[in-house]
């Protein structure tokens, strides 16, 4: 990761107000965990929807970076299935569903410890350069 990426809001370790996400890959799925605090809420006790979309976007698109590709999100869709609570450990996962030339389609979800899915995402991500 270069110095500029160290300031990424979602994953940058140097960003003092960032989410500081760390990732792992398991069985072709890219994963991270996050526990939202009161500073991440929209309505009382519920995580802000914009941050939910940030978690999904970062997990899906960053999966391609983990594979050595440079990519940008071209389209992002989020389906909010139910409110995502703060102060609960969330698992965010992303995986590739298809590839067409320089476009990669990914899917993702946010899951509570009991397995309940609170949000789902789909992204079309464009691979940059000759990769």
From TrEMBL:
Coiled coil listed as a keyword: no
Membrane topology term: Peripheral membrane protein
Top EC class of this enzyme: hydrolase
Domain (Thioesterase): residue spans on this chain: 44-118
Protein known as: Acyl-coenzyme A thioesterase THEM4
The organism of origin for this protein: Sporomusa silvacetica DSM 10669
Catalytic activity, reaction form: octanoyl-CoA + H2O = octanoate + CoA + H(+); decanoyl-CoA + H2O = decanoate + CoA + H(+); (5Z,8Z,11Z,14Z)-eicosatetraenoyl-CoA + H2O = (5Z,8Z,11Z,14Z)-eicosatetraenoate + CoA + H(+); dodecanoyl-CoA + H2O = dodecanoate + CoA + H(+)
Localization of this protein: Cell projection, Ruffle membrane; Cytoplasm; Membrane
EC number(s) recorded for this UniProt protein: 3.1.2.2
Homology family: Belongs to the THEM4/THEM5 thioesterase family.
Chief location of this protein within or outside the cell: membrane
SUPFAM superfamilies named in the record: Thioesterase/thiol ester dehydrase-isomerase
UniProt keyword annotations, A-Z: Apoptosis, Cell membrane, Cell projection, Cytoplasm, Fatty acid metabolism, Hydrolase, Lipid metabolism, Membrane, Transit peptide
């Amino acid at each position: 990761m270069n110095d500029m990426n160290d300031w990424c809001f979602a994953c940058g370790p140097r960003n003092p107000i960032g989410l500081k996400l760390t990732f792992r890959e398991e069985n072709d799925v890219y994963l991270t965990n996050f526990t939202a605090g009161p500073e991440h809420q929209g309505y009382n006790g519920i995580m802000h929807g914009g941050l939910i979309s940030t978690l999904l976007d970062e997990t899906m698109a960053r999966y391609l970076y983990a594979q050595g590709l440079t990519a940008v999100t071209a389209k992002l869709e989020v389906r909010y299935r139910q409110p995502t609570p703060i102060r609960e450990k969330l698992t965010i996962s992303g995986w590739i569903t298809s590839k067409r030339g320089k476009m990669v389609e990914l899917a993702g979800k946010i899951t509570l410890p009991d397995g309940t899915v609170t949000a789902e995402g789909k992204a079309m991500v464009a691979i940059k350069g000759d990769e």
